[in-house]
Amino acid sequence: MNPLFSVSNDVVIRALGYVQRVKKDNCAHSSSSENVLHLDFDHSLWIPSTDPAIRTANFMSKLLANANGSLDAFPDELFYALVRNNVHGNTSIFGSAIAFEPEVFGGNNDIQPEKFVSQPVVSLIDGYWTYPYFDCGGGEIWMVTYSSPIFFRSFDNDSIAFKGAATIDIDMTDLDINQCDKDSATGNNYQTKIDLFRGTHLCQETTKCEKIAGKGFTTGAYMCVCLPRYYFPDKNAEIKAFSGKDLETYYRSETSTENPEGNLFRCMPCARGCETCVDDSPCLYQSSDSLRLTMMALILLNITIMCCLSVATFIYRKVLVIKTASPAFLQLMCLGGVLMCVEFFTLYPEISVVVCSIRIWLWHVGFTVMYGSLIIKTWRISVIFTAGAQKRVKLPDQALFKRFAFIFVVAICIILGWNFASPPYIDVLVPDDRLKAFICMYSVWEFAVLGVEDLFLLYGGYLCFTVRKAPAHFNESKHITWSIYNAVILGTFMAVML
């Protein structure tokens, strides 16, 4: 309910339909209240226009006092001149009238003794406002009438009696009906004094109501323009908006059976990633499907190979070459490789902060598991074969697992610190063809973590150099070097391609 008016929203909607139906050619030529709009308007809008009626009423009251309650001595032209003067000079006043009680004319014209009497004076609050009504057979317009009473003070008993009324008819045709929603920008101006019809537009949820000024006291004086990220379905239309008059005619007509929440008069959604658009053209850069399928096939092949290697390592774990290479760490390497490969699948769903965070965890945890296992067992070989012949070093798998656990915990703490201190965010990349691409941004933490991982790989390269003369069953330096090259070169290539 509008705080300015004591009327329900249903009544306002019915009133809108009535305003839409009542026209010059179908109004009721009668004295009944059939053409009355029973709404309590805020009359403060028309207070300046009431002054002629109040002045006329006070003038007639003074005239009656001087003439002892009878106006027979005054010519009719005087009263016509008064009401004509009320209308002239004020475009909002359509008509004016003076009504008298029967005894004011044709009564006793005897001259009474002169005496001093005070004249009753009326003010704005003494008058009466009618409901807005359509003036059939007269002006054929919507109007509202203000009546100011004419009083006479009796000489006999000093009582005040009602003798008539001075009226003005205020034209409402220039008053716009604003059916759009109220917003914070609405001020206390001419139009907002009569905001009874606010929020009664029929724009759908994909559109926004915009008022059309200067349409007068009629329904449908608005346009339904498309919201951001929606476009007007008719590409050839000169005005990219739905007419409020069309919506009012369609949905408020007596023969309409459609629900205003139907699919008509709706804008169409833009393509994903578009802020504004005129059609359904894409706004996001489209990757090559063939390239994506090729890379997906290669990644699935790598995962399959690593799973097969892990199973083979378990089956042949007692074979000398497998046993000397620590089967448990070989399987950890396969697990880390699978995690790093799975990270590439996060490039396919719609990008989000959660997806960006998952990429961090899959790639860097997989890197830690894979290369941590590889380098920690290479470190054991380096310690054993560089300690010298006189010193016996015993480093079982349990001891290596403790050192691996330390590396793993440090890596987890770094990734947690990264996510809490500087979580990833989504940025928009706009290439030369104006199509946008959403990318994950990781701040300086990404370079810091990559730097630590590069140092870790360089340390692995150093260990490979120290064990280059180890026996054949223990010498994996050449293969470890290849894996380091693969991590740098192949990883960079795939990141650029995807």
TrEMBL record:
Occurrences of domain G-protein coupled receptors family 3 profile (ranges): 291-498
Phylogenetic placement of the source organism: Eukaryota, Metazoa, Spiralia, Lophotrochozoa, Mollusca
Signal peptide interval: none
Annotated family: Belongs to the G-protein coupled receptor 3 family.
Pfam families named among the record's database cross-references: 7tm_3, GPR158_179_EC
Family annotation (InterPro entries): GPCR_3, GPCR_3_C, GPR158/179, GPR158_179_extracellular
Membrane topology: Multi-pass membrane protein
Transmembrane segments: 293-316, 328-348, 360-379, 400-421, 441-467, 479-497
Localization per Swiss-Prot or TrEMBL: Cell projection, Neuron projection; Postsynaptic cell membrane
GO cellular component: neuron projection; postsynaptic membrane
Listed PROSITE patterns: G_PROTEIN_RECEP_F3_4
Keywords noted in UniProt: Cell membrane, Cell projection, Disulfide bond, G-protein coupled receptor, Glycoprotein, Membrane, Postsynaptic cell membrane, Receptor, Signal, Synapse, Transducer, Transmembrane, Transmembrane helix
One of the record's GO molecular function terms: G protein-coupled receptor activity
Protein name, UniProt field: G-protein coupled receptors family 3 profile domain-containing protein
Signal found in the keyword field: yes
Organism annotation: Sinanodonta woodiana (Chinese pond mussel)
CDD domains: PDC1_MCP_like
